[in-house]
Design goal:
- This protein is of the alpha+beta class and 253 residues long.
- The chain has helices at residues 5-19, 32-48, 52-78, 80-84, 110-126, 141-157, 159-171, 178-187, 192-197, 202-218, 239-252, and strands spanning 90-93, 99-105, 129-135, 225-228, 231-234.
- Strands 1-3-2-4-5 form a five-stranded mixed β-sheet, with helices on both faces.
- Helix 1 packs across helix 3.
- The two termini are 40 Å apart.
- Mean pLDDT is 88; it is low at 15-24.
């Protein structure tokens, strides 16, 4: 995408201001004659020093990224209780951990499944991460069925049953259906009938609706998305990248 003349002037101005505050200027305060002369100077300067554009846009990108990160952290802070302290979510890892990592996931998401083994290994190796699952079914009716079944298992049979079923569904290869969910639950020794008895519990609707609302507030449109107090991690990121973000969070606290 070709930058507009206005953006080129802004980026160059940011660079000059960053390199030499005395060189900062107000383009809107110039007369038309001054603007024309200044633009001619810019054109000549850029033709002689085209590499300055890369530096200019690097500065602009850094400032935009910083502004986005600040806005993100403010939204997280404003929704902190719903994100990190909802009584309806499963809390795993170390419930007393010094850092909380939240995952928005869909059981039919291939990227979520791909991230699952590394995530489990990281939680085990670290031993001090409080891990929260946000059921976020966005890939159709089968995804919604899987999330409803998982939450129903938590209501009917408790956290351990939810954890076992969650882990099994994250590695399940069969298509999600009533039959495959029943087979998975019964293979784990769970009471399928007890789970089905809670499948229409209003708490399930409230839980999923709240997660949709949080996703809208946080601009989450895909899975997996991870949330820390200091920001969001989008996508199936490498384990070391998530660990680096957790280390940054710990240092901030």
């Amino acid at each position: 995408m070709t930058p507009s003349p206005k953006s080129l002037i802004l980026a160059l101005g940011l660079t000059l201001g960053a390199l030499n505050p005395a060189a900062a200027f107000d383009i809107d305060a110039m007369s038309e004659t001054e603007r024309a002369a200044f633009r001619a100077e810019i054109r000549a300067y850029l033709l002689d020093n085209p590499e300055i554009l890369m530096e200019a846009f690097d500065i602009l990108d850094e400032r935009q990224a910083a502004a986005e990160a600040q806005a993100e952290s403010q939204i997280i802070a404003a929704n902190s209780d719903a994100i990190f302290a909802s009584p309806y979510d499963y809390v795993g890892g170390n419930p007393e951990g010094d850092v909380t990592l939240v995952e928005f996931l869909d059981y039919r998401c291939g990227y979520c499944k791909r991230a699952f083994p590394d995530l489990e290994a990281m939680l085990e190796a670290d031993g001090n991460i409080r891990f929260i699952v946000k059921e976020f079914p966005i890939l159709g009716d089968a995804s919604l069925l899987a999330s409803r079944y998982a939450i129903a298992a938590k209501i009917a049979l408790g956290d351990e049953a939810y954890r076992a079923l969650h882990d099994a569904m994250m590695v399940m290869r069969a298509e999600v259906s009533e039959g495959s969910l029943q087979a998975t639950a019964e293979g784990l020794g769970l009471d399928h009938a007890a789970i089905v008895a809670e499948i229409n519990n209003p708490q399930i609707d409230a839980t999923i609706s709240l997660n949709y609302e949080l996703a809208r507030a946080l601009n989450i449109s895909g899975t997996p998305t991870f949330v820390l107090e200091t920001g969001l991690l989008r996508g199936a990121l490498p384990r070391d990248q998530i660990e680096a973000a957790i280390a940054t969070e710990r240092s901030a606290n």
